[in-house]
Specification:
Largest sheet of chain A: 6 strands, parallel
Low-confidence stretches of chain A: 1-13
CATH architecture of the largest domain in chain A: 2-Layer Sandwich
Oligomer: homodimer
Strand order of the largest sheet of chain A: 5-2-1-6-7-8
Shape of chain A: globular
Radius of gyration of chain A: 21 Å
Order of helices and strands of chain A: EHEEEEEHEEHEHEHEEEHEHEEH
CATH topology of the largest domain in chain A: Dihydrodipicolinate Reductase, domain 2
Strand content of chain A: 15-25%
Number of strands of chain A: 16
Chain lengths: ~350, ~350
């Protein structure tokens, strides 16, 4: 086992990181998002001095290769955050809630992938291409938005910046990865069961996704929207700073492995020429246009799997409303929908 | 080979069938819909005297079991329709166009599953639960609507009958069966390829549907809607006799075998209480409610596969518009979306 010596702890006095390689801790490294976080820290040459992988007692002691180093998972406890500059947390809301105070008390910045603090006043909820300035106003915690929301706001923001948006109606096509690595495995296993003529039985997800689909299984709220749908509504409003945006969503899980798709109907206060929308989106950061009407070629999950950009296409005038546009998008749920956005958030705090 | 003797030909003088067992011909019996038609004629005790299976020269001569009979496929030609009362056509638009005149000249009623005549003036486009009376006004041809449209109108009609509908926004989740039996086989084969670590290559469909999805691959129209989407728009208006209904759709193929799903946002001219909508839909013919908010149990493709009703659920007040409702539905594409509706159309013409 090779470990870098810990960098001596210096309390941060600004919202940005100090100008030196950082001590980084990842909470939940073994999950689908955690694994992608490790990959991205390496790929993007994030300035890492020490990398700590923090896990439950059960997982502590196992090892993980990273950037030529062999790192042993440590059990998470308050002392583990001493000297850490950045904590990338993706072990779920309850773990994030449990360790937030210890993390901020240690002076680390927590970039949290859970929904625990997203709607909390004073916690920036940030998509770097959309509201980067919000990140610097943090008090130790920056929240990484819901995956479907991140992908959607990349397409909505450039349009909303041009003309006031009145109402958004979204239907999602969400991959198994949104429920974690085990759900992805289950989709593969149960698909094999169906192909072999058997009867699939969902365990990680409540029903089998194999050649099947179902409305998102997060708990229903009093208004009959599921939690996932209300995350989209509330988080989109917060990120885009449009607290009164009229927004409705239907969230659906589909038998796709790791990329989400969304059918988006956007009503504006006035007509929005399609060519202007296309031009804005083709220049928008984090967005890639895939549009070839002649060959009927528009974004597909397989176009974005393992890739950074959100693919947008089929931008068209809504024939039912002169003020509305329709568009379609796909994005890698684990990457831009989670891990990439989290690492980009941390990058916003690097000294320039 | 056992064949029933042909019933002597008597020209029909009314739009209804004569009060005797009918001579029925099926055009396109070997396809996914054709096979389901045969099943339904048997299951529903449709009054069949002779059953002719008409096919291209290539398929003629092969045999098919039906209701205890062995039937030899005959090559389709004009003479084949002599003495036939009912032709169930599901061999595609060009075949339907080719034989329409011969069929009607022979005095048979053509129930056509293709899109060839759906929007033609004087051709009734009928969903028996929605506009049964239209069927009797035929001039020899009754058109069976597009699958997504049939499923949708079953849910829209009971609501539109109560309060004026202003605008509908639909996103579909369409199964492989919509592209025929070969597309279903391809989905299975390519899913196995992916599970075995290979690279799937679509041939029946333009791209692989295995753990993937894409916008419906029907040709794009000048307005940037694909043909499938415009079928939904135009056919829904015709069936519901709402020529000015504002309607937009995004049609998507998903890796499901034979049931379509739809996320439907409906704006009315005034508020529509959810409980009233639920009560109307629970009493609507052809509709089954699947709604258990406590266990998050709503319609799934596997609920309706091989079954007659359209399953509707998750009826909720749209939080973005006081006059709008959201709902979700699933229906078997081959059955109610095609073959069952066609047989029900023919049943409308049986003497009571």
């Amino acid at each position: 086992m090779s470990r870098q010596p810990a960098v001596p702890f210096t309390p941060r006095l600004s919202s940005s990181f100090p100008a030196r390689p950082l001590n980084v801790a990842v909470l939940g490294a073994s999950g689908a998002v955690g694994q992608e976080l490790l990959l991205l820290l390496e790929e993007r040459n994030f300035p890492v001095a020490e990398l700590k992988l923090l896990a439950s007692a059960r997982s502590a002691g196992s090892t993980q290769q990273w950037n030529g180093r062999t790192i042993t998972l440590e059990e998470v406890n308050a002392a583990a955050f001493e000297g850490v500059d950045l904590v990338l947390a993706s072990a779920g809301g309850s773990v994030s809630r449990q360790w937030r105070d210890a993390i901020t008390a240690a002076g680390a910045v927590m970039v949290d992938n859970s929904s625990a603090f997203r709607m909390e006043e004073g916690v920036p909820l940030v998509v770097p291409e959309v509201n980067p300035d919000a990140a610097l106003a943090h008090n130790g915690v920056i929240a990484n938005p819901n995956c479907t929301t991140i992908l959607l706001t990349l397409a909505l923001a450039p349009l909303a910046a041009r003309r006031p948006m009145r109402r958004v109606v979204v239907s999602t096509y969400q991959s198994a990865s949104g429920a974690g690595a085990r759900a992805m495995e289950e989709l593969k296993t149960l698909s094999q069961t169906v192909l072999d003529g058997g009867t699939p039985q969902g365990e990680v997800l409540p029903y089998s996704l194999a050649f099947n689909l179902f409305l998102h299984n997060s708990p229903l709220q009093a208004n009959s929207y599921c939690e996932e749908e209300m995350k989209m509504v509330n988080e989109t409003r917060k990120i885009m700073d449009l607290p009164d945006l009229r927004f409705t969503a239907t969230c659906v899980r589909v038998p796709v492995l790791r990329a989400h798709s969304e059918a988006v109907n956007i009503e504006f206060e006035q007509p929005f020429p399609v060519e202007e929308a296309r031009s804005l989106l083709s220049a928008a950061p984090g967005v890639e246009l895939i549009e070839d009407p002649a060959t009927n070629r528009f974004p597909m999950p397989t176009d974005v799997t393992g890739r950074d950009p959100v693919a947008v296409g089929r931008i068209r005038q809504d024939i039912s409303d002169p003020n509305a546009l329709e568009l379609w998008l796909c994005g890698d749920q684990i990457r831009k929908g989670a891990a990439l956005n989290a690492v980009q958030l941390a990058e916003l705090l690097l000294p320039s």
